[in-house]
Write a structure and sequence with these properties.
Elements (H helix, E strand, L loop, with lengths): L6 H15 L3 H25 L2 H20 L8 H20 L3 H27 L1
Length: 130
């Protein structure tokens, strides 16, 4: 199966599988955010390079990461409603970018989700230190 992909894609997939296999639920959330921000970066690169296939694949991966994050929301969590709204808005924005790519919007989403991811990682580290 990996032979059908580029060597870079095969390596990325093996690394992803290894991270997921050994992850606890909080770490899986971080993996989803990593996938989301990386996919947004690839979409930007694809758009800049004029590579519509790469841009499309990256947007699809970003939407899949958002869907995974949405499915993992605990409705009882205090931030569930806000997170649901944020992810829904990001999903709609990316779907709009399929037809009318807006690099500044994608850059902002990448920045915002990177900040969220980093905050979650700091919180995870702090909880392990206690």
């Amino acid at each position: 199966m990996h032979a059908l992909r580029s060597p870079h894609e095969a390596y990325r997939r093996v690394e992803f599988d290894a991270r997921v296999e050994g992850a606890n639920p909080r770490q899986l959330v971080l993996v989803c955010y990593d996938q989301l921000t990386a996919a947004l970066g690839r979409a930007l690169h694809g758009a800049k390079a004029g590579d519509n296939r790469l841009k499309s694949e990256a947007l699809t991966r970003a939407l899949a990461a958002i869907a995974a994050l949405q499915m993992g929301i605990d409705p009882a969590a205090p931030v569930a409603s806000a997170l649901t709204q944020l992810l829904g808005a990001a999903r709609r924005a990316l779907l709009d970018c399929v037809l009318d790519f807006k690099p500044e919007l994608v850059k902002q989403l990448q920045k915002d989700f990177s900040e969220i991811r980093n905050s979650l990682e700091r919180a995870e580290f702090a909880s392990r230190s206690e």
